[in-house]
Amino acid sequence: MDGKIIDGKEISRQIKEEVKQEVEQLKAEGCTPGLAVILVGNDPASASYVGSKERTVQALGMHSEVIRMDEATSEAKLLGEIRRLNDDPAIHGILVQLPLPDQIDEQRIISEIAPEKDVDGFHPVNAGKLMAGLPGFVPCTPLGIMVMLERSGVVLEGKHAVVVGRSNIVGKPMSMLLLQKNATVTVCHSRTADLPSITKQADILVAAVGREGMIGGEHVKEGAVVIDVGINRGTDGKLHGDVDFDAVLPIASKITPVPGGVGPMTIAMLMANTLESARNACRQNG
After folding, report:
1. In what residue span(s) does the Tetrahydrofolate dehydrogenase/cyclohydrolase NAD(P)-binding domain sit (predicted)?
2. In CATH terms, are 30-114 and 140-263 the same topology?
3. DSSP type of residue 214
4. Which of 16, 117, 118, 120 is catalytic?
5. Which of 16, 97, 228, 244 is flagged as catalytic?
6. Is 53 among the residues known to form the active site?
7. Do the bridges between strand 232-233 and strand 239-240 make them parallel or antiparallel, or are there none, so unpaired?
8. Would you write out the chain's pLDDT as a tens digit for each of its 286 residues?
9. Residues in a beta bridge with 160
10. Does 120 participate in catalysis according to the annotation?
11. Which of 81, 86, 111, 172 lies 20 to 30 Å from 187 when distance is taken between CA atoms?
12. Strand (E) positions, the chain?
């Protein structure tokens, strides 16, 4: 059973330990990686995420800056803050916690972040680089999934990967990363007809739809690797994935749990992206 569960907590711990060692080495060379996080408003979930990121940054020895702005903050004021951070040499990564209040255009905000500091990987420049197979920042969740698969010994080349979900944050970049590793990729979504007939062909199945328990045993081929990206608060108050874990566990060869699977990897890869940005900046300046 232990070999079936892909332990995101343990893999993320390994990543963070590796990042911490490299941060120490970079600091010895006179360069301290810095991450700035902007939180607009008082959404409890967003505040919790930001707090977790702040603690992780500090634990890894990086410079942390958290800018908390009022719910009524104007788009112009937020854009001004991003421009300030773009020009600040002590900041190598800029993250604006989403979602933003209604008066602010998320895409405009994301596009204002300097691409070389876009450690979330959401800027159109980085999205284009991913599509073209060029070096750039990749969104942290799909990047974390690729690391999980690699460190769990999952072979992707020649395999059929099915991604359920087509968001810019997970589904689309996930499909590009799998293609780069020579998997054959199918992307499904809310309009896909007869979903089980397609997902049942998958050697690797990635569920990223945001609907609790949507993927059941009838969706999964015997021996498939199942990656559950969903984080849904159930009526029982607990976190549940997009996959019916108990139904799929006996069928899958490997599976990620919720919580403790993909979630911890997202912050770990944010730290890795920030380190990479700092390394790039210090090379250019040094």
Report:
1. 139-280
2. yes
3. -
4. 120
5. 97
6. yes
7. antiparallel
8. 567 999 999 999 999 999 999 999 999 999 999 999 999 998 888 888 899 999 999 999 999 999 999 999 999 999 999 999 999 999 999 999 999 999 999 999 999 999 999 999 999 999 999 999 999 999 999 999 999 999 999 999 999 999 999 999 999 999 999 999 999 999 999 899 999 999 999 999 999 999 999 999 999 999 999 999 998 888 888 889 999 999 999 999 999 999 999 999 999 999 999 999 999 998 887 6
9. 184
10. yes
11. 111
12. 34-40, 63-69, 93-96, 160-164, 184-188, 204-207, 225-228, 232-233, 239-240, 254-255
Q: Report the CATH fold assignment for 30-114.
A: Rossmann fold (3.40.50)
For domain 140-263, the CATH class is alpha beta
pTM for the model: 0.95
For the annotated binding site for NADP(+), the residues are 165-167, 231
